[in-house]
Amino acid sequence: MNSMFKQALYLFFGLCPLWVGAQIQWPGDFLPHPLGAQFTPHHLLVDYFQHIADQSDQVQLMEYGATNEDRPLLLAFVSTPANLANLEAIRLNHLRKAGLIPGTPDPALDRAIVWLSFSVHGNEAAGAEASMAVVYDLANPIDPRTQAWLQNTIVIIDPALNPDGYSRYTHWYRGVANRYPDIHPSAREHREPWPGGRVNHYLFDLNRDWAWQTQVESRQRVAQYLQWMPHIHADLHEQYYFNPYYFAPAAQPYHDYITDWQADFQTEIGKNHARYFDKNGWLYFTREVFDLLYPSYGDTYPTFNGSIGMTYEQGGHSRGGTAIVLPNHDTLTLDDRVTHHRTTALSTVEMASNNATRISEQFANYFQKTASNPAGPYKTYIIKGDNPRHRIAEFMAFLDRNGITYGHVASRTNLSALHYQTKETLSVTVNPSDLVISAYQPRSVMVQVLLDPVTTVVDSLTYDITAWSLPYAFGLEAYASTSKIQPETGYELPPLDNQLVGVQDAYAYTIPWESMKEAHFLAQLLKAGIQVRTTSTGFQLKGREYAPGTLIVTRADNRKRPHFDEEIQSLEREYQVKVEVLPTGFTDKGPDLGSASMTLLKAPRVAMLAGEGTYTNETGQVWYYFEQRLDYPIRILYPDDLQRWSGEDVDILILPEGQYDITGSVAERLSSWVRSGGKLLAIGDALSNLTGHDTFGLHYKANTDNNDPEPPYEDHTYANAERRSIADANPGAIFSVAVDDTHPLGYGLGNTYFTLKIGTSAYAPLEDGWNVGTIGDAPLISGFVGSNVRPKLNNTLVFGVKDHGRGSFVYLVDNPLFRGFWEQGNFLFSNAVFMTRN
């Protein structure tokens, strides 16, 4: 065993060096390198956990899923042999005690449950390295302290939440590092290339995805998490290398619904960590950053599920390598980083064991109290049943993934409720066809955190977005009421009842354009070579109204397909969308189906930029949208390729968010390509790359609206500089957008769209273009926006189109694909891809 680790163990935990009789091997004896001397390839990390499980009767290993690159996702359950033999009974008893499943709990089965998550960011690799030391310590049969802890404690270890990112980083580092570590920060081994190992295969930040679960790793992990619902969850990260260690308690703002018990016990755990850090003279800090507001982190998501959720941050990150010099001229090693993480992880287990009865009782009280007396003002949330069917279905799937129950009323009920769309309190009738979510359920806090129309922010110095209310994200007409309704359990959408079986010789088929479900279906039609049109104006046929954007598949356009009807019906059965049969092209009102108003859609050949200069997460969001949401091909180019790109075999070029060169000959090349029929689709910060060229028609808004600014922040001391700066910040808030839904970019959105606006960029409406989505004079719906920023955003462009020759520029000022969870934004992006001119 590495001598530093042995010394650390003796200093921290007073252990005697009695290692001879153990069957399990210390990681440094099992691996081809000493633990902390080199990064461990993921397959060897997996092998080590398998070794521990094979050799110890105190460890059970579970493979709970796989990544996009087919690497295994693991959980190690560590406790006494007796507890592990009774593991399922302990789990069920724990859920019964919290009221999450029916049944009478048995006090004899009460155990403290601790979940330790390592390296959700793959290039914060010291966490995964430390997981091997932690599982060894806990499983070591001659370690008296850990053996005592496990008598009343179940420890669940996820050694690498992001295996693909971890592998990307560790393989890169092992390939470029010097034989003897170069500690200078400018050395190659401290400068990880794009896209870095922080993110998963699709370049998503998995630590922002706990609630949304857009990614395969998150969905599989959270499914297991909700089966266990630990009392304590610690998420072990790394931060910039010259920062001291950070542990709980967290910084403000805390969400209003976090209980005093949760906040206070965080502090108790932090003081226990401090005891060990003080003893060894290690620097640390608490309470300054990493707040508890945004609900999709590895600390907040467990917190809103009743846990003591905490983030731990060791200095290091990708810049750390295996050794790096610090500003104080000390050298931080990987060995140091592993030791620190090992210490807080074991200290967490110690606190759980020492307070097992207390945390078990408090956890049960949390759920009993919140289910009977919800924390927030809104007790009932109503999603109207006449919302587009597939939007409701996506929303239900989201609730299911998060363990949130919902139902319906048996008969019509009247109540007073806030209308999300208008922010007015109205008298509303709740019908049996409406989806009803009651806050009177065990996961009450999660219900209210996710669905409240407005997030209460007690401190505006926040680390992330401040608004996310799901009815806005899913584009659903909804109401929130302070009145209690106890709905009947369950909700079923009405059957599609397409009645296509046996249909032959249909004149045309129509599909409503309402959600991502139809966008996915359209992508499959186009991939299959089926010709599709969309109506640019509404029409009426056989008493039915068909809105602009409705998809129309005519026999005439597909007359060379001998099995036309069978193909449409087969795709309808596979993708389960609403398909109607039209027996004629002669409409009752509006243009006939052969009119020029029925625009023929093409199967676009799509390319995007990715690489140095593009933002990693935002680039991945586009990639994920095409491959996983649409199942549609996309070509990926480097930004430098534009220097010699002809564009002759591409119909749409997507500029993801980033800072890269679109000037000079590149700008002229793109302008010429669009003029010849191409479509340039720019997202978010990519628009800033286009503002210097007249062809693109983009201009920042002149800040002339702030005629009556907020009074300046009174405290002008140096200490309050950061707080004063928030007047110029917008971490993320929801704004109301007026939509021209007669334009193809607005099809299916209705006349109002709710945008998640992040940042302060404000563009003037296009002087020579279509301002399809704009913010007016009173746009803020929810969230914090700095006093100097808010008036700047009034009367600005959110999305629009500028025609150019036979092609067009499409501008999306706010990234509609942000983190993949803004479902109505995904649908807006589908309009930009398929419906707008090119």
Structure description:
Mean pLDDT is 93; it is low at 1-21 and 707-712. Strands 27, 28, 29, 30, 31, 32, 33, 34, 35 and 36 form a 10-stranded mixed sheet that branches. A 6-stranded mixed sheet has the order 1-2-4-3-5-10. A 5-stranded antiparallel sheet has the order 16-15-18-13-17, with helices on one face. The radius of gyration is 28 Å and the shape is globular. 30% of the residues lie in helices and 20% in strands. With 838 residues, the chain is α/β, with parallel strands linked by helices. Strand 35 (796-804) and strand 36 form a beta hairpin. The longest helix is centred in the first third of the chain and has 21 residues, at 260-280.
What distinguishing features does this structure have?
838 residues; alpha/beta; 10-stranded mixed beta sheet; 6-stranded mixed beta sheet; 23 helices; 30% helix; globular; disordered N terminus
Question: What layout of secondary structure does this protein have?
Answer:
Layout: H1 3-13, H2 27-30, H3 42-55, E1 59-66, E2 72-78, H4 81-85, H5 87-97, E3 112-118, H6 126-139, H7 144-149, E4 153-158, H8 163-176, H9 216-228, E5 232-240, E6 245-246, E7 251-254, H10 260-280, E8 284-285, E9 291-292, H11 300-304, E10 308-316, E11 323-325, E12 331-333, H12 334-354, H13 356-372, E13 380-383, H14 389-401, E14 407-408, E15 413-419, E16 425-430, E17 435-438, H15 444-451, H16 470-473, E18 478-481, E19 488-489, E20 508-511, H17 516-527, E21 532-535, E22 539-541, E23 544-546, E24 551-554, H18 564-575, E25 580-582, E26 598-601, E27 606-609, H19 616-630, E28 635-637, E29 652-655, H20 664-675, E30 679-683, H21 721-725, E31 733-739, E32 752-757, E33 770-775, E34 780-782, H22 790-793, E35 796-804, E36 807-812, H23 823-835
Parallel strand pairs: 3-4, 3-5, 5-10, 6-8, 7-9, 27-28, 27-29, 29-30, 30-36
Antiparallel strand pairs: 1-2, 2-4, 11-12, 13-17, 13-18, 14-19, 15-16, 15-18, 20-24, 20-25, 21-24, 21-26, 22-23, 31-32, 31-33, 31-34, 33-35, 35-36
Helix pairs in contact: 3-6, 6-12, 10-12, 17-18
